[in-house]
Amino acid sequence: MRVEIIIGGGVESMADGVIELIVTIVEDYAREIRKRENEVAGIYLYGSYAKGVSSSDSDIDVAIVIDRKEVDVFDEQLKYMRYRRKIDTRIEPHIFIKDELSSDIFWGSIKNQLIKIA
C-alpha cells in the first residue's frame, strides 16, 4: 500500500512505514492510557493520517471513547493531553462519550475514517 501526502501544494508518495510509525505511536499512547484508565471503551486514529493525506505539520488525531455517564470533557481532554507527553506531543486527543456517539455530530463526521487502535 502507498499513501499520498500533500506537502506544500505538491503530492508526494508515502510508503507504509510512515503509517506504521504513526500507528505504533498511537499504540504506545493507548498502552499508557490503559495503564491509568479503566473506563476507556475505544481508542482510534482518525484525521489526516487515517485518510492518508497528512503533511509535515500534521497532528495525530486520536478519538478516545469514554464509557462513563458524567464526564467533564474539558477536564478529560487536559488529562489525556498530559498522557501524551511521554509519547509524542503531536497527539491530539479528542474525547467522546460512548452513550452519546449516535447523536454526536463530530463523531458522525469521522466514524467512517476511524482506525481502531485499542
Structure report:
- The chain contains 4 helices and 6 strands, in the order E-E-H-E-H-E-H-E-H-E.
- It has 118 residues and is α+β, with helices and mostly antiparallel strands.
- The protein has a single domain (14-116), classed as Beta Polymerase, domain 2.
- The strands form 2 sheets. The protein has a 4-stranded mixed β-sheet with strand order 5-4-3-6. The chain has a two-stranded antiparallel ribbon with strand order 1-2.
- Strand 4, helix 3 (73-83) and strand 5 form a beta-alpha-beta unit.
- The relative contact order is 0.20.
Supply database-style keywords.
118 residues; alpha+beta; Beta Polymerase, domain 2; four-stranded mixed sheet; two-stranded antiparallel ribbon; 4 helices; disordered N terminus
How would you sum up this structure in a few lines?
This protein has 4 helices and 6 strands. With 118 residues, it is an alpha+beta fold.
List the helices and strands and how they pair.
Elements: E1 2-7, E2 10-15, H1 16-36, E3 40-46, H2 48-51, E4 60-66, H3 73-83, E5 91-97, H4 105-110, E6 115-116
Relevant CATH superfamily: Beta Polymerase, domain 2
Gyration radius, to the nearest Å? 15 Å
Helical residues, percent: 25-40%
| Count of DSSP strands | 6
